Amino acid sequence: MDFDAAKQRRVLQSRSYISLAPNLIHLKTAHGHHEAAFEVEADTATLTFYHGDPVRSAELLMAAAEAVTAEDRSIRSVVFDGHQASLPPHISGAGGTLDSEILWQWPSLWLPQLSYPLPPVQEMTAGRYHPRRPAKPKGTVYRRFIPWLERDISFRVADPETDLAAFHRWMNDEQVNTIWEDAGSLDRHREILEERIADPHVLPLIGSFADIPFGYFEVYWAKENRLGPFYDADDYDRGWHVAIGEPDYRGKKWISAWLPSLMHFIFLDDPRTKRIVGEPRASHEQQIRNLDRSGFAKVKHFNFPHKRALLVMLTRERFFGDHLWVPAS
């Protein structure tokens, strides 16, 4: 069976899954509704479809594999009872085994739009030598179903017109302003959004749960960023900033979804990104604890002009090797 990545994205764009009982899932895709049972032995899940026509397609099998590995870090691989031949040969191992570490690095499951990374053509910006960055996408760049919340999370590129009112309100929130120090007028916030969108090294994103916007995120290339001179930045290191603007979406319940999902998006967006960095305020103990639980290593303290910061770093090897798309319990 031929594997068509564009078809896969169409089939799975509205997928969801729930646990009906231990080791039993209900899966919904554009192919219809399916129920499947699975057994786990020696870190391998064997999955069997029933109660519905198990469409023999790579799209459905990979969606089912996602469902059984989305909440259990111990599952290292998935095999399918009677359907191994439908897996894409270039990502399945011997005997049709699907390695979860490979599965979760397969971008077409979560990225609605795909493009090949630019070849590494070097250029200079403000005295910094770095690879040329790709043109920015528009619209939704990542979508994932979060089973423990039973809703989607998505990230889309910020728009100065449709998102200005929410961005203005969020930046003037007392808790956000304590960290960002960007409170101000509507015109000031329009300028900030327009500047971020025009800046080739920054991708400004709006995060939504079930299509309800809850926060603002910036993903940046570290080498061109203010952080770059403070450590030995790799060409494809990326960093991030976050402002959770809606008070109802603050706290551990929501962090367990947006933080690993944002890291997942960053690693999928360019396969050459091996490290994600951050620079939280050194005194922000709660944020540092959250990062520690999410796999970030503490590298060093350093001084920005405006704050004492802690450099933290998450490697691709640790994120996928330790299955950190599943939050710490």
What does this structure look like?
- Keywords: Acyltransferase, Transferase.
- Its EC number is 2.3.1.-.
- It comes from Rhizobium redzepovicii.
- InterPro entries: Acyl_CoA_acyltransferase, Acyltransferase_MbtK/IucB-like.
- It holds the Pfam family Acetyltransf_8.
- By secondary structure, this protein is an alpha+beta fold.
- The chain has two domains: 5-109, no CATH class; 124-321, Gcn5-related N-acetyltransferase (GNAT) (Aminopeptidase, 3-Layer(aba) Sandwich).
- The chain is 26% helix and 31% strand.
- It is built from nine helices and 16 strands.
- It has helices at residues 5-12, 58-69, 100-103, 164-171, 174-180, 186-198, 252-269, 285-293, 316-321; strands at 16-21, 24-29, 32-41, 44-50, 77-80, 98-99, 122-125, 128-131, 140-146, 151-157, 202-209, 212-221, 238-244, 275-278, 297-303, 308-315.
- The strands form three sheets. It has an eight-stranded mixed beta sheet, sandwiched between helices. Strands 1-2-3-4-5-6 form a six-stranded mixed beta sheet. Strands 7-8 form a two-stranded antiparallel ribbon.
- A hairpin with a 2-residue loop joins strand 3 and strand 4 (44-50).
- 38% of the residues are buried.
- Mean pLDDT is 89; it is low at 7-12.
